[in-house]
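<instruction>
Derive structure tokens from the sequence
<data>
Labelled lines for chain and fold
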Amino acid sequence: MVRMGFRLILGAQPGIEVVGEAADGAACVELARRLRPDVCLVDIRMPKLDGLDVTRALAGPGVHNPMRVVVITTFDQDDYVHTALRNGACGFLLKDAPPSLLIEAVRAAARGDALVSPAVTVRLL
């Protein structure tokens, strides 16, 4: 249901096209490598391979031609933020963020910028 909500929100935006969805982390890595989307939106908690490992596989240190990955989660934990960013994420959002922040995070990643949820940023500073 969450994936469907993200698809509806993002797919309704001009200039954004949702090109794929995956039910688990292993499928996400395979699909992303095949489709090469401009931005990958990755949940931390996924079956088979979690979002932090997916991020490292797609954007981590040593990855040739890394992808732009935005990590999203319900779990507001500092170690998740640090690991996601260390693994190459260019965005980190909490699932309770408003749709406008999700859209801005995807747009920021697509243009090569980064966006971290303001609540997380304030706490980490």
Remarks:
- The chain has a mean pLDDT of 92.
- The first strand starts at residue 39 and ends at 43.
- The chain has one domain: 2-124.
